[in-house]
Amino acid sequence: MRKGYLKIHVAVDIKKKRIVSLEVSSEEVHDGSKLKVLVDRAMENNNVKRIIADGAYDSNENFRFLCQNDIEPAIMVRKNSSLSIGGGRRSMTHSPRKEVVLKQLKNYKRWKHDINYGYRWMAETAFSSIKRMFGEYVSARRFPNMVKEMLVKVSLYNMFISMR
Q1: Residue ranges in 8-95 assigned as alpha helix (H)
Q2: Model's pTM, two decimal places?
């Protein structure tokens, strides 16, 4: 019987290279559904100005949430994005996502450069570092304990990063 895998969702402070928010879920959970909780936790002790995220976080709901919190969305939109919602039934006149879609459709390379999209790899670097330090697997068998084990690993990772 296949046991599945854990999904680790993180928010990384790109200046300090620290993980400021962590969410652990099962493989069935969509990444985009975790943006709000990650950002809420990150905002508790940090000044969040911009969110740099891949296309998994592309949703009108996430763009609205970031707009409501005065956070600049630097989220890659889907390649086939249009300027309508719901299959063309109504226009995106008041959608916070519209501006990002327009910029990316107009000149994707410039958009990437202007918002420093390359810094998104800080999260990938954090994942890679944690895997190198602690391995790819957890020892715990029950999900709540797996979450605690990941919290300990992330705390140790942050401690090591702060020692530099």
Answers
A1: 35-45, 60-68
A2: 0.83
- Per-residue pLDDT in tens (0 to 9) along the chain, 164 residues: 456 788 999 999 988 999 999 999 988 999 999 999 999 999 998 899 999 999 899 999 999 999 999 999 999 998 777 665 554 455 545 678 888 888 888 899 999 999 999 898 888 899 899 999 999 889 998 999 999 999 999 999 999 999 87
Does 138 fall in a domain?
yes
- How distant, in Å, are the alpha carbons of 25, 39, 151 from that of 144? 10, 22, 11
Full domain range(s) for residue 44: 6-162
| CATH at residue 47 | 3.30.420
Q: Does residue 38 lie within any of the structural domains?
A: yes
Chain center to CA of 95: 20
Backbone angles phi, psi at 91, to 5 degrees: -85, 160
1 located within any domain? no
Assigned token pair, 29:
């959970």
Residue 17 gets the label, from left (phi > 0), alpha (psi -120 to 50) or beta, of: left
- Total structural domains within the chain: 1
Is residue 25 a part of any domain in this protein? yes
